[in-house]
Amino acid sequence: MSGLLSSAAALGSAATLGAADFSGGLASRKTTLPSASFGVELVGLAALPLAIWLLPSRWELDGILYAFAGGLIGGLGLILFYRAMTLNLIGVVAPVTGVVAAALPTVVGVLEGDRLHLGQLVGIGIGLVAIVMINGFSRKMPEGARLGLGLAIVAGATFGLFFILFHAGSGAGVYAFAGGRAGSMISSLAFALLTRVSVIPRRPAWRLIGIGGLADGAGVILYLYATFHGLLSLSALLTSFYPAFTVLCARLFTHERMSLVQLAGAGLAIVAVALIAAT
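RESULT FIELD:
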């Protein structure tokens, strides 16, 4: 039963994080990048009652530090992800980020002795093909498309590290959640200081940040629940299915258009995430 609940929580995390990435990405078009990230992380603390309900409350310093480090790295990745999303390439950026984020925990699992299933190996191969297809634009490729792809790959790597570190710190439960939010907000503040921009979100972005923050907070809590009760190789990879929900939101709410090659590549990326997540 715990395995079933863990998988369900991971898929719930994928849905909420996917919606959060879409909302936060749109918000980043209306305010500065670090302010969008900072706002999402801050509002996400409103989900603390859910954390208290679902997660253990153990003062484990190692776990808190792991989550804090995951928050620092993930916070930077979120800013890079939002930057890529401002290029109007949600349907491309989200799947590529998801492939990299899904593959990294798999590699770590292999190094720790886990065995890859055939479907996961195929998924990694398809993911690489998808990235090539998305990068193989025609001469009419959108401005900034290659930059968006590069940012998506780096952001995916940071998200993969986020999953790994939060898995390591999941035993701290509520404290891990709070430590991770603190780490992410520090990343946003540091980025704002380095780039000399405001960390206070502009008013037009408030509603989107509110939606994204609540969804993001819930998504992280569900992931912590899933990875505490389950395996990294399952929880992180199922959660990495979040691009499907981001792309769905983009199609429904912004009617984003992609070329046939891009669309096929994005579709393959989502298939790759699903295969990598298969156990």
